[in-house]
């Protein structure tokens, strides 16, 4: 579904991605792990069109999307949940969800209502707080709202950037359970996550990125058993 080949991305003179290649097949959860500054978030931002690549190809569902505008990429079926959630704190839960459906045309307004209902059913706590400003929610609830907002566009693939960041362990468990449920409904997921242990247990395959380069790849189980990964990312 997603194929990245020899991707280079720079911030001015600084080369953040140095020729990475990775794939996500239909229905897969694939994780990207690495230390701070390794290039994980840059990879997602380049895929979603927020950053233009300097070189390389990004192919999604058979179409080249390198350099395409972010809103067009959303319409093609990729939606991103950014690091830090970035909900709109002064808008209500429902209004935040409605913003996630900006790519849905006016002729399909009934579909928006249907999607909001489905998301509030998926996240009952959001249903209870539908009229509250997003900024009044807990960190875990805001993460659920950010995921729900991304689902409003009806994506084929979800890009998740550090969904467990700043959450209590019990909420991390809930969020990862939600990710698994979304995947069961047919949404492919590319997961960036510093909680490498949880990410690798959840994912079918994984990649390790270091200093802008993919250094190790394999199944989740293979990476969990890799001595280098254990030492660097699993604390073993």
Protein model, in words:
With 236 residues, the protein is α/β, with parallel strands linked by helices. It has one domain: Rossmann fold, CATH 3.40.50.300. The chain contains 10 helices and 10 strands. A 6-stranded mixed sheet has the order 6-7-8-3-9-10, sandwiched between helices. The protein has a 4-stranded antiparallel sheet with strand order 2-1-4-5, covered by helices on one side. Helix 7 (169-184) links the parallel strand 7 and strand 8. The two termini are 34 Å apart. The model has no long low-confidence stretch (mean pLDDT 91).
Give descriptors for this structure:
236 residues, alpha/beta, Rossmann fold, six-stranded mixed beta sheet, four-stranded antiparallel beta sheet, 10 helices, 10 strands, 38% helix, 26% strand, globular
Brief characterization of the structure:
With 236 residues, this protein is an alpha/beta fold. The protein has one domain (2-233): P-loop containing nucleotide triphosphate hydrolases (Rossmann fold), CATH 3.40.50.300.
Shape: globular
Number of domains: 1
Query: What's the end-to-end separation, in Å?
Result: 34 Å
The helix count comes to 10
Could you say what the CATH topology is called? Rossmann fold
Q: Approximately how much beta-strand content do the residues carry?
A: 25-35%
Low-confidence stretches: none
Mean pLDDT figure: 91
User: CATH first level: which class?
Assistant: Alpha Beta
Order of helices and strands, N to C?
EEEHEEHEHHHHEHEHEEHH
- Strand order of the main beta sheet, please? 6-7-8-3-9-10
Question: CATH H-level name... which superfamily?
Answer: P-loop containing nucleotide triphosphate hydrolases
- CATH level-two architecture: 3-Layer(aba) Sandwich
Query: Radius of gyration over alpha carbons?
Result: 17 Å
Helix-strand category? alpha/beta
* Biggest β-sheet description: 6 strands, mixed
Q: How much helix is in the residues?
A: 25-40%
Secondary structure tally: strands? 10
């Amino acid at each position: 579904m997603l194929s990245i080949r020899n991707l280079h991305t720079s911030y001015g003179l600084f080369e953040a991605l140095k020729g990475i290649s990775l794939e996500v097949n239909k229905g897969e959860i694939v994780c990207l792990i690495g230390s701070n500054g390794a290039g994980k978030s840059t990879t997602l931002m380049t895929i979603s069109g927020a950053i233009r690549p300097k070189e390389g190809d990004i192919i999604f569902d058979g179409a080249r999307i390198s350099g395409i505008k972010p809103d067009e990429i959303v319409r093609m079926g990729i939606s991103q949940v950014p690091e830090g959630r970035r909900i709109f704190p002064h808008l209500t839960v429902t209004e935040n969800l409605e913003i996630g459906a900006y790519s849905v045309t006016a002729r399909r307004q009934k579909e928006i209502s249907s999607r909001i209902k489905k998301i509030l059913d998926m996240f009952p706590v959001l249903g209870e707080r539908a009229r509250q400003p997003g900024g009044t929610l807990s960190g875990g609830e805001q993460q659920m709202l950010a995921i729900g907002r991304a689902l409003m566009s009806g994506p084929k693939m979800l890009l998740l950037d550090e969904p467990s960041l700043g959450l209590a362990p019990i909420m991390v468990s809930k969020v990862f359970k939600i990710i698994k449920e979304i995947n069961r409904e047919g949404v492919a997921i590319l997961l960036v996550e510093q909680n490498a242990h949880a990410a690798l247990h959840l994912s079918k395959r994984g990649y390790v990125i270091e200093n802008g380069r993919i250094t190790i790849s394999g199944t989740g189980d293979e990476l969990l058993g890799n001595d280098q990964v254990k030492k660097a990312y699993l604390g073993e």
